Structures are given as C-alpha cells and as structure tokens.
C-alpha cells in the first residue's frame, strides 16, 4: 500500500484503472447462466432440485421441501435474546419510517375546459427478493428489501436465499418472521433469479426482482430484465472517504476495512489533500488487519483494490470522488455540509466524523442496497418506487379536444398516420 499523488505524471493512468474497479466480465459466465435460465424455463422444479444439489450440496426430496417453514421462522424469532430482538425491531422501525417518507402520491389536475390529467401510482402485485448467502448471511438485506416493498403495498412478497447444506442463518429466519414473509425458498444463485422471473410449480412468477448477489446473480438479473423489472445490477461493495486533517486516521482505516472485509473484490478509496493523514491511515490499516475475523479477505481487497490518493486541495478531491461515484461516501471533514452541494454522484453519503458507513448498513434508516461500480451516476438506492409503477390518466372534455385536437391531427398527418388523424378529425366535426 502506498499513496498516489495527483501531481504525478502517472496519476491519470492509475486513476483510469481505478474507475474500472466495478466492471464484471459477464461474458465468461453468460453461457452458464443462459443454460440455467433455460433449464428453469423448460423443467421448472425438477431443474431447481438439480441445481440445489449441484451448488448448495443438498437434495430436496420434494419441491415443497424448498420452501422455508414459517414455524421455523417464528421459532427463530422467539428464541432471540432480548437485546438482539430489540435491535432487530429498532432497525425495522427506523427503516420503515424512512421509507414511508418516499411514498409517491397519485395526483390529478383539472383544466378550465373540463380536461382532466393525472397519474395513478400502484404497487406491483408480487415482488421477488434475492437475499445473498454463501460467504456470509445478511439478515439486514432482508429488512432493506422487504420493508420498502411492504411500505409500497405489495400484496405478495417472494424471498429466495441460498441454503448451503440445507442450513439457514438463525437471524435471517427471525427477520423473515418479523417482516411477515410467508413465501420464502431455499434457492440461490442464477436459479433463484430465473425461478422468480418465469415461475415454476413451486415458486411463483414475480413482477420485480431486487437484491444483490454474486456475478451469476447479477448476470441472471441482467438477462431476465424486460421479462421482469429489476432494481439494479450490483457489483462488489465499495467505500470512498473524503477526509481532511481533522479526521482520525484510525477511524478512517477501520471504515475502509469495513468494506474490504466484505469481499476480495471490494474497493476502499481514500482521497485527501493531507499527505500526513494518508500515510497515517496506511499504517493504521496494517496494524488493524490482524484483528479482523476476515483478515485474509480484507487484506487481499485492501492491497489489490484499495487506493490512497493525495490531492492538491479539497476541491480536486471532491471532483475525483464524483468521477468515482462510490457506493458509500464518507465525508470526514471539519465542515462536511460545506462539501455536500459539490457532491453529485454517490449511492449514500455519510456526513461527519460520527457517521460510519456501518450505521447505514443496519439501522440508520436509508436503504443499504446501493449502486456500485460508478453506476451512482444514474442509479438510485433501492426505494419504495422500485416496487411501484405509474399509470397516466387522461380525460378530454369536448371543449378540451376542440382546443388541442386540430394541432394533434396535424402532427399525426405529418407522421403519415392516417387512422390517427381520422380518429381526431371525426371527433372534431
């Protein structure tokens, strides 16, 4: 680990490599995912059982055994120790309260001639949530995906999560109960995405699929998009930190490691005009790494994909961070809100020395399902509107049609659509 400086002649090349951090080579897995999708489409539950045996190392003896028992959810919830149960409820309520503020409203406008225009907002009928497993279990992801769907008013929520060796995380089961989920299945990977997109005998077809996953999940979501809606194509986790001399090097180091421990492909990026801070952070990281339970993962991530950039000033630091468009952005400066108007691209922005990224992962309230790999330039965090759609409402009065109909007929004529024009002219007689 070492600092890189914006004044060096090699900086542009190094920075361009950094901008490519989130690119996933989906071409290598596309043939495999395509086969999985086709098998689910043609053979449904039979194919699902084969995929579970191959990838999760257990064999459902019947399709119904893929379903997670609601009694097991309830038992896991009731067995939670009081402090953990309380923490789960605090997270639930904070996430619900935040997302309730996002609810879009239907509206109508009335013109003087009697014309009515408006918009009707409706929840989708059925949502599919993918909750990752494998290297770690993420009950928090269940809360972050289920609660906005519940707030939106989705009638039926389907959850798929991998269960390696037919084992499920105890806290995930408890979270399923807390969210009132009754349709949950022990299915993971591209198989789960295909099952929710097209339906099988056991798993129903959904209208939208949300939730993060590995490259196979991301590729499957991309391939089924259009047959079903999706939230985003999520890649490896990442954090960017803007810091000045007031930042505590130890806290900056730990916050960078909080993303590095997720995955070897995670990116942790510090940008600061303070060279002394950058060097101190590097020392703190080396000292702290041996204390991590996932040291091997974090060490590979921070050494291969971490970056410590020293800029000429804070304006240059902010400009570079906007180009990176990080999933998580911490602003650890004396007056963080002074920088907020200049920040244009970030999934979630954590302001000040007392706002570590993990507070957003679990309990602050905003969603932790965020755009990665620079896609914060055009994607938003998962939100209530991902589970809703809008219908336009148009009601023309006779006076209203008389007022704008001739112009409409002229436009239709210019496009050579004679039936369109006639539809208007007949009413204008």
Q: Residue ranges: pLDDT <50 for 5 or more in a row? A: none
Q: Which CATH architecture of the largest domain would you pick?
A: 3-Layer(aba) Sandwich
Q: Please tell me the total number of domains.
A: 3
By CATH, the superfamily of the largest domain comes out as: Nitrogenase molybdenum iron protein domain
Using only C-alpha atoms, the radius of gyration works out to 25 Å
In N-to-C order, the SSE pattern is EHHHHEEEHEHEHEHEEHEHHEHEHEHEHH
* Outline: globular
Number of alpha- plus pi-helical segments = 16
Strand ordering within the main sheet: 1-11-10-9-12-13
Output the structural class.
alpha/beta
CATH top-level class of the largest domain: Alpha Beta
Strand count, sense and barrel status of the largest sheet are:
6 strands, parallel
Helix content: 40-55%
Distance between the termini: 78 Å
């Amino acid at each position: 680990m070492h600092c890189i400086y914006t004044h060096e002649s090699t900086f542009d090349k190094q920075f361009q490599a950094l901008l490519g951090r989130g690119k996933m080579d989906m071409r290598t897995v596309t043939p495999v995912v395509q086969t999985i999708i086709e098998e689910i489409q043609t053979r449904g539950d039979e194919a699902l059982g084969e995929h579970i045996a191959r990838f999760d190392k257990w064999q459902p003896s019947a399709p119904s055994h893929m379903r997670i028992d609601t009694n097991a959810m309830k038992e896991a919830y009731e067995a939670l120790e009081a402090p953990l149960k309380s923490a789960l409820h605090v997270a639930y309520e904070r996430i619900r309260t935040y997302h309730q503020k996002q609810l879009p409203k239907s509206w109508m406008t009335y013109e003087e001639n009697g014309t009515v225009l408006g918009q009707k907002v409706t929840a989708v009928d059925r949502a599919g949530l993918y909750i990752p497993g494998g290297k770690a279990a993420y009950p928090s992801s269940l809360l972050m995906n289920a609660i906005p769907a519940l707030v939106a008013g989705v009638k039926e929520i389907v959850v798929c999560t991998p269960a390696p060796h037919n084992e499920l995380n105890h806290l995930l089961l408890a979270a399923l109960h807390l969210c009132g989920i009754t349709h949950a299945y022990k299915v993971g990977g591209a198989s789960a995405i295909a099952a929710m997109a097209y339906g099988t005998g056991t798993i129903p077809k959904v209208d939208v699929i949300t939730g993060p996953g590995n490259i196979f999940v991301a590729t499957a979501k991309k391939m089924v998009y259009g047959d079903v809606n999706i939230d985003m194509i999520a890649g490896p986790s990442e954090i960017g930190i803007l810091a000045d001399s007031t930042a505590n090097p130890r806290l900056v180091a730990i916050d960078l490691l909080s993303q590095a421990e997720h995955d070897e492909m995670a990116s942790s990026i510090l940008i600061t005009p303070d060279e002394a801070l950058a060097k101190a952070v590097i020392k703190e990281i080396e000292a702290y790494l041996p204390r991590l339970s996932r040291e091997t993962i974090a060490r590979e991530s921070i050494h291969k994909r971490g970056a410590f950039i020293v800029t000429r000033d804070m304006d240059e630091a902010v400009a570079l961070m906007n180009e990176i468009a990080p999933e998580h952005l911490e602003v650890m400066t004396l007056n963080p809100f002074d920088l907020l108007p200049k920040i244009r691209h970030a999934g979630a922005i954590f302001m000040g020395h007392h706002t570590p990224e993990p507070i957003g992962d679990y309990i602050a309230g905003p969603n932790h399902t965020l755009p990665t790999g620079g896609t914060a330039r055009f994607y938003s965090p998962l939100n209530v509107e991902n589970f809703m759609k809008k219908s336009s409402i148009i009601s023309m009065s006779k006076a209203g049609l008389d007022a704008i109909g001739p112009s409409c007929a002229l436009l239709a004529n210019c496009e050579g659509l004679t039936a369109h024009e006639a539809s208007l002219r007949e009413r204008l007689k």
